[in-house]
UniProtKB/TrEMBL annotation:
SUPFAM superfamilies named in the record: PLP-dependent transferases
Superkingdom: Bacteria
Catalytic reactions of this protein: (sulfur carrier)-H + L-cysteine = (sulfur carrier)-SH + L-alanine
InterPro entries noted in UniProt: Aminotrans_V_dom, Cysteine_dSase, PyrdxlP-dep_Trfase, PyrdxlP-dep_Trfase_major, PyrdxlP-dep_Trfase_small
Keywords: Iron, Iron-sulfur, Metal-binding, Pyridoxal phosphate, Transferase
Known cofactor(s): pyridoxal 5'-phosphate
Species assigned in the record: Paracraurococcus ruber
Protein name in the entry: Cysteine desulfurase
Function description: Catalyzes the removal of elemental sulfur atoms from cysteine to produce alanine. Seems to participate in the biosynthesis of the nitrogenase metalloclusters by providing the inorganic sulfur required for the Fe-S core formation.
Length: 390
């Protein structure tokens, strides 16, 4: 850690690039910068080979075939392609299934994609969740019928860290004959994922959420039975015609290396991170009486804590009072908004309490000393804010 750098506890917004990932990418910027689609010459073929090796690593992380991986710019594009692509292809085929179902706690790009499809004649259904953030089986079962085309439920929530029962959700989707998509950006590398076990038809990934580079992601698209999508934009027909555009070889290679590391070291990471989380929480609960953890206490990824501070303090004021620690109020895609988190609202948390809530993301490179010191700094900031508001 660099001297005087703040303690980084925002690993759900993004993770640092693992040094091994950076080393894997470097040659594809410096030594072989060829276009991986320029297969007429040796450098282009070498770049293509590196891309395909990385694609295989990404596929292996989720139990898929390499040819089922469509590379994208990130999970937002992958989610848009999955939801809008599936709906538009189905519409072209004249299907009677027009219902798209999701949960109120999904990432904004999923919710907005579902809502956008209303203008194209589809029926958006956005279901509530339980107060612990988990899906409600009866409500989901009632929403899935012969009118349902697609169900989209994220594997791990990006704010409260809860892990949904994807196998049960996938089974319900299959009973209704609907496609099942899951946004697994926050899950990959943190929990085991197998597309066959969860019966996913479409699954979204992001490189920068698992210690890889920003600007690269992927969409798993099932081959058997085959899932068809309409592309979002036109071009040269790369990525099986689903996603045109030149692939950024260094980023793809980095994503592949990050996936390889996650597949081999994920369990070790999880155990170590759980220890840092427990240390962090023990210090904060000792020093901040009345602190509350939001979301299911056990069914959550090990590095996540979504914490409501007592005393009616403002989370923005807390962060200003603790410049030595990097945390957030929620999703990095929404945290600039004045409104309280819609995820916390969906859990039934009052706005005043939602405004007093911070998201903590402990990661692979968080040390015990940083976890303990970060908690102490936040507790000190809380006491200062409370005192100032009296």
């Amino acid at each position: 850690m660099r001297p005087n750098r703040p303690i980084y506890l925002d690993n759900h917004a993004t993770t640092p690039v693992d040094p091994r990932v950076l080393a894997a990418m470097r040659p594809w910027w410096e030594d072989n910068f060829a276009n991986p689609h320029s297969v007429e010459h040796p450098m282009g073929r070498d770049a293509e080979e590196a891309v395909e090796a990385a694609r295989a690593e990404i596929a292996s992380l989720i139990g898929a075939e390499a040819r089922e991986i469509v590379l994208t710019s990130g999970a937002t594009e992958a989610n848009n392609l999955a939801i809008k692509g599936a709906a538009r292809f189905a519409a072209q085929q004249g299907t009677d299934r027009r219902r798209i179902v999701t949960l109120a706690t999904e990432h904004k790009c999923v919710l907005e994609s579902v809502r956008d499809l209303a203008a194209e004649g589809f029926e958006p259904v956005i279901l509530p969740v339980r107060p612990d953030g988990m899906f409600e089986p009866d409500a989901l079962r009632a929403a899935l019928d012969d009118r349902t085309l697609l169900l989209s439920v994220m594997a791990v929530n990006n704010e409260i860290g809860v892990i949904q029962d994807l196998a049960a959700i996938g089974a319900l989707a299959k009973e209704a004959g609907a496609l099942f998509h899951t946004d697994a950006a926050q899950a990959a590398g943190r929990i085991p994922l197998d597309v066959e076990e969860i019966r996913a038809d479409l699954l979204s990934l992001s490189g920068h959420k698992l210690y890889g580079p920003k600007g690269i992601g992927a969409l798993y698209v099932r081959r058997r039975p085959r899932v068809r999508l309409a592309p979002l934009f036109s071009g040269g027909g790369q990525e099986r015609g689903f996603r045109s555009g030149t692939l950024p070889a260094p980023l793809v290679v980095g994503f592949g290396e990050a996936a390889r590391i996650a597949a081999t070291e994920g369990l070790l990471d999880s155990g170590r991170i759980a220890g840092q989380r427990d240390l962090f929480l023990s210090v904060l609960e000792r020093d901040v009486p009345g602190l509350r953890v939001n979301g299911h206490r056990d069914q959550r990824v090990t590095g996540n804590l979504n914490l409501t501070f007592p005393g009616g303090v403002d989370a923005q004021a807390l962060m200003r009072a603790a410049p030595g620690v990097c945390v957030s109020t929620g999703s990095a895609c929404s945290s600039a908004e004045v409104e309280p988190s819609y995820v916390l609202r969906a859990l039934g948390i009052p706005d005043a309490e939602a405004r007093a809530t911070l998201r903590i993301g402990i990661g692979r490179f968080t040390s015990p000393a940083e976890a303990e010191r970060g908690a102490a700094l936040l507790a000190e900031a809380w006491r200062a804010v409370v005192a100032a508001e009296r």
